Amino acid sequence: MSIPHINNNSTTKIMQSNSSEPNLLLIRSKTRMLIFYKMYWKTILFLATPLLLLPLYFIGANNIYVTRSLLDCLGVMMINVAIEYCNVHKRIALRIILMFGCSHYRLSFILFFSTLVLSMWVSNVITCGVMIPLVRSILMELEKLGIIEVYENIDKDRRSTQIYKPTLFTSFYFLGIAYSSSIGGMATLFGSRTNQIFKTIFETTFPTAPKIEFPHFMLLNLPAALLLEILVYLWLNFYFLGMFRSYRDASLQMSMTDEETQYMNTLLSTRYQQLGKVTFHEAVVSAVIVLAAALQVTSNTLFTAYSYHESVMSHIKLSAPSMVCVVLLFIIPINLDFTKFFKKRTGNLELQTAPSKTCLNWSLVKDSVPWSVLFVIGSSNTVFEALEQSKMTQELEKFFLIFTSWSAPAAALIVIVLCKTLTEFACNSSVAHALLPHIARVCVISKVNPQYLMLSATLASSLPFHLMTGTPANAMVLAYVHIPPKVMMLAGFGPSVLAVLTVWFTVTMWSKAIWPDILLFPKWAEVNSLE
């Protein structure tokens, strides 16, 4: 038997392969990543493709498949189930309609900007998880009044086999909530994981540079967030409700007479009084929601203050606030009947013989949580984590080096468009974590202030408007009311163009007022700072 000849090139490749990798594949991680992408685009219709193919190609460590953001989303969806179980969202929905009326312009303005303000301090996942039950309850109350229809009419023979399709009004409200939760996150260091990653990478890469402080960051990005929110609000009203277009069918349903308004208010007041007093169940769930928001704010504060101390940050997990609150909901009962066991027994005292019902149980979670969202989020997180571990992100750095001879505003526009495109296909925090170190290196090579391009990439990565893979908020909204992906794809063109222009204006013009020397290449950004 003849022995096959092994040339020097193949021997070199084998010697360069990682000894810890399986011996079945003697090719580099970058080559495996290219093979994966060929298979990925052929099976793109299956959302869980990365979760199945990446382990087969031995790409990435095991911890990239179940991330903290995925667990955080699972915890928020469980809290969402608890909100619907206690019906506290119906009480709040009726109160909002009584205060602001049935006008879609007013209701959408209040809901969108409330989401914006809330997402400035907590993650967009928690913000969206709290708001979508409330919005759905408001729409259901408006449907009972005969003002709108939440879902399109479907033949009775087909209702049992087909998922309901939301109307334009439903898509308008829920997409507005998803977009507002992402826009609000760009305003502060606490609001988005992407902003925190930018602060950490910038301060560790350039240790002698000025620190990214909360007041300066908020002064820089809050006007952009407010401007973009107003523009997106007008776009969604124009696209879905026919604002400025009186011939649209949706715009014809926007007006009500004074008699109809008075009748609606009377009917809503009666329905609100029928709810009675706030129950212990509603009070507990409301308190847990406030606790989740408070824990999220404090954990974000610690992350921002001690992001460069690994000993401190090792004990702070992204999913901790939501998971702690979920455990409380599984423990706390819905009433105080169990306290009778601690009272003195009398003849009239009746003790319960069955276990107390809790604010959350497994049967509710199993039947109500949209599990498909977890596959979408897990897949989107996995792709860019595998890109980073397989060194494929170095190819993006080579692409950025093409524009080193361009002016700083032109290079910023290229970075904004590229990051805005990439964040539609992967989790925004994964995009920022993978690209920001390479963008910092490109800034040093091209003699551009690193704050200039890194800030452009950070803000652009926080604004996915087209696909459910961009952020868990988009996936939750689409799964909650079954919005077709095509609707979000088409509706997101306007916000995407507005986002690119707003971020570009913020970085190139408004940033000069906050950081006057942002156009100058500083001394702390020398090559030895990247070594």
Main beta sheet: strand number and arrangement?
none
Q: Unreliable runs, pLDDT <50, ≥5 residues?
A: 1-26, 155-161, 308-316
Rg, Å, rounded: 26 Å
Approximately how much helix is present in the residues?
Answer: 55-70%
- DSSP helical segment count: 24
The chain-level mean pLDDT equals: 78
Structural class: mainly alpha
β-strand number: 0
Structural domain tally:
2
Along the chain, the helix and strand elements come as HHHHHHHHHHHHHHHHHHHHHHHH
Describe the global form.
globular
* % residues in beta strands: under 5%
Distance between the termini: 52 Å
Keywords: Membrane, Transmembrane, Transmembrane helix
Subcellular location: Membrane
Pfam family, one: Na_sulph_symp
Family: Belongs to the SLC13A/DASS transporter (TC 2.A.47) family. NADC subfamily.
What features would you describe in this structure?
The protein is mainly α. The chain folds into two domains: 68-153 and 162-205 and 213-339, no CATH class; 372-530, no CATH class. The chain is 64% helix and 0% strand. It contains 24 helices and no strands. It has helices spanning 8-16, 29-42, 49-56, 68-86, 88-100, 104-119, 124-144, 168-185, 193-205, 214-240, 249-252, 258-274, 280-305, 310-313, 320-331, 362-368, 372-389, 393-401, 408-422, 428-446, 450-461, 472-481, 485-491, 493-514. The N and C termini lie far apart (52 Å).
